[in-house]
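Note to self: keep these together.
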Amino acid sequence: MSTSGKILTWASVIVVVALAVFVYFRFYFVYSEGVNEGDINYFQKEGFVFKTYEGKMIQTGLKSIKGQGSIQSNEFKFSVEDEHVADMINGGSNVGVKLHWKRYLSTLPWRGNSVYIVDSIFTTGGTSRVVTPIPPVEN
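Structure:
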């Protein structure tokens, strides 16, 4: 093989590996994960080609502004991949819930519109305050 052929082969290999690393970190690397608690505001299945579950949770809390306390409300937008978790969120829409999520750097059309992907749910509503975990589905 000639020198220019070897250079072209190595350059091609480097480009392919760099592209694979970029795609992995941009779309499949879990940047962070955590839990948010609140009330489900809405939850729906939407999309033209890829039907994904999208939802919004309202998180209430207190915020201090120059010594004065005020009530604030934060919205947490999320997507759900697993249909079992989506069914559990639909069933718990009138009680407080804790959602365990994973955050990716970018979205994929079949994964949802949000970088926050919910993989399990814990119910916290009601008077007993019993936490019922639903384990995440492992792929």
